[in-house]
Write a structure and sequence with these properties.
Length: 348
Amino acid sequence: MAFSPVDPAAFEASRRRTGLLLLPLAAMAIAGAWLLSYVNHSLNPVDRWFLPLLSLEAVGLTVLLYFRRLGVREVEASALGGLGLYQLLMLLYLVVSGEVYRDGFGATSLWYPLIFPLAFLVLPREQALRLSVAYYLLGLVIGLAGMALGAVPTLKALNSFVQFYVVCVAYLVLLDIYARVREQYFVMRHMAHTDPLTGLANRRAGRERLEHALGRAQPGRVAVLLADLDHFKEVNDRYGHPVGDQVLREVAFRLDQELREGDLLVRWGGEEFLILAQGTDLEQAQHLAQRLGRAVQDEPVVGTIGVSLSFGVAVFRPGDSAETLVERADRALYRAKHLGRRRVELEA
């Protein structure tokens, strides 16, 4: 029932589209780099064998992602692992061949720190930091191993060596700071968009989601239901506000359990809830309201305390804004209250 200010389904779909775009481009770029190096006779053993594997991995991940055989996170983790392994093998080759101690880090090594931002993009901050530190330390051990075995770097190579590993540390520190700020931002955003009592979306978040839904909706296929607890003031007056809060939490839970994935439940006011039901016409919205009412009314919500709901229902029309749609649902709710409560009224 906990609300997320970011629509998880939309966010996942966006990451999937990005993967389907970037993976084929990566496959072509890797294949192009291999071909150019082959033509120039500059392929080293790692590039000769590993670049084609990376290109094939990108193609395979594209196919698996397209046909939904793998989730977005699994694809991202696989791509991250493949790139990280390639960079470590390349670094090992530069050390074994002695090239890094003669000429320093070349253009290929500039891609080594790319693992850090990718890790922070794909993984939670603490996991990304642990993985990045382990990756950095492994690279540092590989780089120092040659000197421990007797390799003597030139001054140019030593300067490159020191700068490379110091810059990597700087990247890690800055990325960790950024990730902490990003976490704090999402915490604050969640607090600003979530009702603290019920964990539902609050009015601000509900309005934003409603406006977003109407921007891409077909007329007659998005419904708004306004639900109000009948005689809730009497519950507070008789049993006290702590019990009233329990009633609100239980009602929110029961309503949420009856909704489909993709629908949104909002605490719109004190004892008023708004339900955004997408892909729903007026008749379906009426049935939904009746089902929601039964879910709350059929059994006591706290101890022996029973409550009922009144509903006002409206459906998106051409030219509607969030305000006009909610206003029609509110007028229908007013009629439901005026006609005796514990009922569903449709827009006029």
